[in-house]
Amino acid sequence: MHLRIILIVLCGLLSFYANAHTYYFLNTEQEQLGQGFEQKLGMPLESCLNGQWQFQGGSMGDLAYRGDFDSDTMLNTITGSVKGGINLVIFGGSAKFSMRRKVTKNRNSAASAVELTYEKGSYNFENRTTKMAIQELLNKAPNQVRSRCGDSFIHNIKLGSRIYVTAKLHFRDRTKYEWFQTKIKVKFLFFSKTFTKTKAFQEATKDAVYTIQVNTDGGMTPELARLSKNGTMHCKTDNLTSCITYADNLFSYLFDGGTYVDDLKDEHLNILKYEVESYEDSGHYDLAYAGQAAISERYIALSARLRSYQDLVYDEIERLSAFKAVSEEPLEIEQLAARITARNTQRIGLEQAGKYCATLPGTTLCESQIESAIANID
């Protein structure tokens, strides 16, 4: 089987509801078929329905180049739809949440990504009935049902794999990054062994670090794991040979002529995204009219504030790690290592605040946790 076969629709069409909304899967453990969902917050809640998983046929693939790729564009592209500008689960702090920063440009790093996506098909949640415990609660405290079950449920999950091969140029500060973006205007950061650097390019990148990395939502076959086992490849910009060789080896395996498609099996697939359907549209009127929403929309603002600091910390850890990887000065390595350790401590504090707020403890308590974590960031 060749890549060109996987890059066309093989059979059938994926079923969907006209009023469904698609969300990026962040692996919060609640993003599962049948989970309740509050659409105003874009957040999975408790599972209030019993039902059966039914596989929907259809396979499709896509190959795309994402030049000058930013995280918002990435999410808007791969979700397929955005409702009210919300396409992230609030208080997302998982590895997949941080991955969006790893494959896109940020404050001090330019990025290009090649994205390879394969969707095997999807599962719908059918033959649904309201759980007995929820039925009993409907008669006693309907507002509690709304808080636990939301106004919708996850009715479809899409399985597949998505691989990003990302090239980045990391700069020491924002000024040098902006100068590169303005003067050089290079959008494609994958270079060949015959790449001839202009004098302007050499001047703009002389203190930058070039990296090649692989990130996946599923699709990590044994051979891809072997090729990427050493993690991100770091190179000084005056010697890109090892990074170029690494990218060549990856592309030789992943694309036409390679064996990636043949190696890809069901066990390598993950949930890529999911769709939600309102209880009203699905005919679950008992849940659709179960009182008024008691979950504060203030959580959205708190999550956005938390996320902005998480992005800052993630970005700097990546940048500092790039310069540490190529440094040959013991003192600089020691200083960078200390800074990375400090940032990782801050990262953990922010993630813990996000996990706490994801339990919906109340906005006052949530805000207190977030502000405590932010106070430790310098």
Molecular structure report:
The structure is a single chain. With 378 residues, this protein is an alpha+beta fold. The strands form 2 sheets. Strands 1, 4, 5, 6, 7, 8, 9 and 10 form an 8-stranded antiparallel sheet that branches. Strands 2-3 form a two-stranded antiparallel sheet. Helix content is 41%, strand content 24%. It has 2 domains: 3-294, no CATH class; 296-378. Helix 6 packs antiparallel against helix 7 (199-205).
Question: Which descriptors would you attach to this protein?
Answer:
disordered N terminus, 41% helix, alpha+beta, eight-stranded antiparallel sheet, 10 strands, two-stranded antiparallel sheet, 15 helices, 378 residues
Class derived from helix and strand content:
alpha+beta
How many domains make up the 3D coordinates? 2
N-to-C span: 52 Å
Mean pLDDT equals 86
Tally of separate helices = 15
Beta-strand percentage?
15-25%
**What is the string of SSEs from the N terminus onward?**
HEEEEEHHEHHEHHEHEHHEHHHHH
Name the shape in a single word: globular
Radius of gyration: 23 Å
Strand runs, count: 10
Relative helix content = 40-55%
Low-pLDDT stretches are 1-18, 81-86
Question: What does the largest sheet look like?
Answer: 8 strands, antiparallel
